[in-house]
Design brief:
15 strands, three-stranded antiparallel beta sheet, about 210 residues, single chain, 2 helices, about 20% helix, alpha+beta
Length: about 210
Amino acid sequence: MKVYKSLLLLCLTTYIAVGQSFKSPSEMTRYKIVVNMGDLTIKTSVLNSNKKIRPKSGHIYLWYTSNKILETEEGFDGRIVDGQFKVFYINDQLKEQGTVKNGLRAGRWIYWYSNGRVNEKIRWKKGQKWGEYKLFNNDGELIASGHFKKNRLHGRFVTYDKFGRKIEIKKYRYGCEQKKKKRKTKRIKNNQKQKDNNTTISSTIS
């Protein structure tokens, strides 16, 4: 009898625990999905409700509908992507990986070539490129680095040769290249010096 009561108590406890942990689809805040798009496979999760999300200007949203992941600026019309976001090539090699918060890319993202070499490293902030950026060639060699701010190049942008030596350095301000202004002071001094020489020569001739 004691053994029977113990078994009954164990079954009842297990049933209660399972019942408490189980959530119906309507109670889940988000759920995982796997999407096949051509030669690519996407693994991520989407929110069960988008009621609290209001699209913002200048932000690109990732969303899910009809077994597709779409990207739209300042809007969406489906389930919002939220959580880890991974894209795979047909050979199961990673293509890109990062985090999405309420439909917007956030934090550090890495992109790969199909051979497994890193292609790009970039930071995102609320759906905008914002922070350090690095670009690599197919052999894994760094060929460019810079910074983004509000989706635009901002600050120094450096390109490199295959030996890692700097080829060119440019400066940007919100996407606009800042060209160096030519110095005029030296030319003015040289012109003044020429005038003085001409005056001396004229005086000597006179």
